[in-house]
Amino acid sequence: MATDTAVRELDAVVIGAGFAGLYMNHRLRDTLGLDVHVIEAGTGVGGTWYWNRYPGARCDSEAYMYCFAFDQDLMQEWEWSGKYPEQPEILSYLNHVADRFDLRRNMSFETRVSSAHFDEESNRWDVKTDKGEHYRCRYFITGIGCLSSGQIPDFPGRDTFAGEAYHTGAWPHEGVDFAGKKVAVIGTGSSGVQSIPVIAAEADHLTVFQRTPQYMIPARHGNVDKSVLDEIKTRYETIYEKARHSVGGFPYDVQDRSALDVDDATRQDIFEQSWEDGGFKFMFNSFSDLRTSLPASELAGEFIREKIKETVKDPEVAERLLPLDHPFGSKRVLIDTNYFDTYNRDNVRLVDINVEPINQINETGILAGEEQHDFDIIVYATGFDAMTGSFNKIDIRGRNGQKLKDKWEAGPLTYLGLTSVGFPNMFMITGPGSPSVLSNMPVAIEQHVELITDTVRHMDSSDLELIEAEPEAETAWVQHVNELAEPTMFMHANSWYLGANIPGKPRVFMPYAGGVGTYRKHCEEVVAKGYEGFTFTPADESVSA
Ligand code: N01
Questions:
Q1: Could you give phi then psi for residue 515, rounded to 5 degrees?
Q2: Residue 454: which H helix or E strand, with range?
């Protein structure tokens, strides 16, 4: 039983030791000299890459872009091995960063923040953990990730299954042995699509339970010659600068052409070339309007459907794999390696749960429609309570004891995706209403961490006690975020961006769809205009602690 211990006074508490928490710690502690403590639930650093160890896990951002850019020496010394960074390599990288900057010495591991309450008497946050620790700090900062709260649907009888069951986002560190086993994978999002080909190659038999067929672009993953990466390193500054001012946080050239303005043969050639290149270039580097024009998106969708039909040998299986109910780009674009080919294997079966619904999970397996499927292992690749789920798990209370969870009951309300009215001196790194998941995360994270650092520096040098968003600014921001999403393909599908994967969750588009470059410019203007939309409380006007 946890007991309350002495209160520890700090400048800042940061939750999470992933990309966000690591860099925030470095900036506040080493640049500003603040007394900071980082609280992390895992036994080590890594965040997403600590938890998501499922087979085939890797990032869809190319490796040379999926890292910190704040330190030139760090950038030059780290060597990536392949086109895309695999989970063990990213975890090694983040451990290297933690070692290099000595970031663990002010961290608690295996500890969860249970509550964070703003005390209006002292203008301090009281942060308590499940270990009974109590911190009192000026700044309360969340680096809790956007996809950290795993969800396993409440299928009838779910807990009666006698075999092994795993969620991709909480994978056992010792790995799972699939050899000779009958395996089920439920879910065909990024995690399912990455793990399915790897599990199929190991298991005796794999059955995939699919609710929504998906569009995918081949990754073209493989080793990259060191000379290529060395050459990239000579241009790192330029590359990152381009990424910082781009839409998706990638340094890809943007094409100023509509898919509708070229003839069929030209369009086909461009799609083919982008398909050969693989990865997100298909989306960002082929045509300018795949995210915003339904007819353009449909042309890309049709191209991909043809590729699926060409790849999957059994026409009936191919038909079940065709995404027809949502346009390309309306859900997270998936990057795959051998996904569709996997359905040509003799040991793989696809169940469309729209036709054969999962009626029950029982001791031996899954009853889908009228058919019983027996399994040794069930893998839930069923996603996350995205963006707000991890906030809701912590009892966060601002002014007048208002709970963040209550304030966000109808959807997250933030200013810049960074702050929320009534929660002074609380900053959310890549919170809802910021570009976050619609971009290459390290780029978005660095921008937020640096903005928070500059803001804290400004407050300290100007003797300002509190920063708080203004209600009008927050209302306008939420409206702006909605308006940006409205003309995009994102509004045409049931996705976790809209909370549609969680029963009862309000249908609100949560990330900022205007791109990291536009968002950065907006933040710079806010600062240049004296932190427009924020109110500061000077130290001498506040009640002293
Ligand atoms: O989760 P998801 P994920 N019954 O929500 C299905 C990032 N990520 O873990 O599409 C049956 O995308 C659900 O079906 P549907 C990335 O941003 C990145 O795969 O909702 N099925 C879907 O097929 C990604 O988008 C990387 O109809 C149910 C699947 O489960 C995000 O994390 C790698 C169901 C969930 O897909 C989440 O990806 C991994 C139900 N009740 C993750 N509920 C890389 O960078 C859900 N499903 C590579």
A1: 95, 150
A2: helix 441-461
| CB contact burial 251-279 (16+ within 10 A = b; e otherwise) | bbeeeeebbeeeeeeebeebbeebbebbb
Number of independent structural domains in the chain: 2
Give yes or no for a contact between 296 and 290, defined as CB atoms under 8 angstroms apart: yes
* 57 CA closest ligand 1 atom index: 33
> Does 385 contact ligand 1 (Cβ within 6 A)?
no
| Boundary residue ending a domain (380, 399, 431) | 380
Cβ burial of 507 (10 Å; 0-12, 13-18, 19+) is exposed
Residue at token pair 């058919």: 371
User: How confident is the model at residue 540, as a pLDDT?
Assistant: 80
Identity at 350, one-letter amino acid code = L
**From 332, 378, 505, mutation site for ligand 1 pocket: most ligand atoms within 8 A of C-beta:** 332
Quote the ligand 1 centre to 191 CA distance (angstroms): 6
The CA-CA-CA angle for residues 51, 52, 56, to 5°, reads 155
Are residues 280 and 405 part of one domain? Answer: no
Averaged over successive runs of 10 residues, the pLDDT of the chain (545 residues) comes to 73 98 98 98 98 97 96 96 95 98 98 98 98 98 97 97 98 97 98 98 98 97 92 95 95 91 97 94 91 96 98 98 97 96 98 98 98 98 97 98 98 98 98 97 98 98 97 98 96 96 96 98 98 95 51
153 in ligand 1 pocket by Cβ < 6 Å?
A: yes
- Would the CB of 60 count as within 6 Å of ligand 1? yes
- Based on the fold, state whether residues 390 and 372 are members of the same structural domain: no
N residues, the chain: 545
Please report, for residues 20, 86, 116, 223, the alpha-carbon distance to residue 144 in angstroms, rounded to integers and kept in the order given.
8, 21, 14, 31
Mark whether 145 and 178 lie in a shared domain: no
Closest-CA residue to 155 (of 382, 389, 321, 325): 382
Radius of gyration of the chain (CA): 24
Check the CA dihedral 476-480-481-485 and report its sign: positive
First-to-last alpha carbon distance for the chain, in angstroms, is 30
Read off the tokens for 217. Answer: 């672009």
For position 253, what pLDDT does the model report? 86
Atom of ligand 1 nearest to the CA of 332: 25
Helix (H, G, I), strand (E, B) or coil at 453: helix
Distance 188 CA to ligand 1 centre (A): 6
**Structural tokens at position 319:** 């038909």
Q: Which domain holds residue 516?
A: 7-149+386-538
pLDDT computed for residue 5 by the predictor: 62
Place of tokens 């640049």: 31
pTM above 0.90, yes or no: yes
Do 177 and 315 reside in the same domain of the chain?
yes
pLDDT of residue 285: 86
Q: Do both 278 and 239 map to the same domain? A: yes
Provide the pLDDT for residue 1: 41
